[in-house]
Amino acid sequence: MKATKMTTAALLSAVVFASLSSTPAHAHRAWILPQVTVVAGDEPMVSLEAAISNDIFVADYRPFNAQSLLAYDHAGQPIDLENVHSGRFRTLADLPLTTPGTYRVVSASAGLNARWVEADGTRGGFPGRGQGFDDDALMDAIPEHADNVQISQVSRRIETFITHGAPRFDVIEPTGRGLEMRYVTHPNDLFSGETAYFQLLIDGEPAAHTNVTLIKDGMRYRNQQQDLTITSNSNGELQIPFAEPGMYWLEARYEDEQAQPPATKRSGSYVVTLEVLPE
Amino acid sequence: MLSDNLTALSTLRGAFIFASLIGLSVPVSASTAPAISIEIPRLQVAEYHRPYIAVWLSDASQQRIADIAVWYDVAMARDEGSKWLPDLRQWWRRSGRSLTLPVDGVSGATRPVGTHHIDMPQHILDQLEPGDYIVHIEAAREVGGREHLQLKFSVNTQGAFKINHSTLQGEHELGRVTLSL
Description:
The structure holds 2 protein chains of 2 kinds. Chain A has helices at residues 8-16, 135-141, and strands at 29-34, 38-39, 45-53, 62-63, 70-72, 78-79, 82-86, 91-96, 101-117, 123-126, 147-164, 179-183, 190-191, 194-202, 205-206, 211-216, 228-231, 237-242, 246-256, 265-277. By secondary structure, chain A is mainly beta. Chain B has one domain. In chain B, a hairpin with a 4-residue loop joins strand 2 and strand 3 (64-71). The model of chain B is unreliable at 1-31 (pLDDT under 50). Classes of the chains: A mainly beta, B alpha+beta. The interface between A and B is medium-sized, with 15 and 16 residues.
């Protein structure tokens, strides 16, 4: 298995924001940020914001596509986000946590992507910009005389977790599709001075030797990004020492050639927002 | 530090009690059990709310054994006062988040400025094996801060208590907290 560092520009154009990729090669980052991740009381509600930006958690570029945001309750059942609104820079929503347990807010997709060169030398691709995956239509979409056809199996997942009462693991188990995280340490049980244990998975199997980038909030108020790169071991496992409390943006990118035919490449991106509380 | 001196004193006192207990073969009774006192300081702030306070017992490796007291806005409608309990972050993690509140004998109303005494419940003391223990006192105040202090005692093989860390002076949300026999 081979882990590759894709450039930001390559990842953006190929996978994550196909509809937004006619942009300079700035580090556009997607995130879903809850105001708090640990709540209690009578039917608490948590405010979320979601955006694509350069600066972590400062909405300075585009709002997150509100239609792609999904919420799942303590039992893993889909629930509606309330008061969803997209402004010029960010999307806002409220998550009701009616029953105790762990809730997930996520935007995820996975499917096949084709790139080719037309007979006249222009480049073609499927799905088109801003279009969702449609694996059944993929082969028909590739012109007969297309050259340099490359089919990739791609996945993207951007998520965060919020817990009402005691954290639960059962509803945050990986789905087995795309690049995902298995939480050995619960994502809503993170404290400064402690080491968290996670496992990166690609299609349910360990994503070995994969780089993960960790950036703490407050980037605007320091002169360096202070990003931390951590590499998963041969079993996809990560040990993350959270030195300071705060909101963290974690991103993993993965690529190999172990795709299912007709794809020849497999890639995935995973982003999660994690809150670390003071000890 | 002051607390270090007091610790040394209390060790002597503990040793004395320990010796007398052996001599008399007296079983542990409530009168020789650790009691806790907690000072809630007067704060000069524009908007004052009484702090939420949790007191609990853990073993030396921070594993919670039992809750001793949780003071919060118990009387609010629909238990709305429990919304802020996660601000007692360590207690919330070690205990609160798994409880159905309020808990009889543990939950109580917030306390005013002053020094408050709590006896450690006998039913908790009865279950203690010989070893080292920590009494945790955590306070969090609305539009204020948070503070977590830890006092230490041990139980010997005869079941006698010894205070190893008898007093601490809080700096923010708590005043002096003490553990005494």
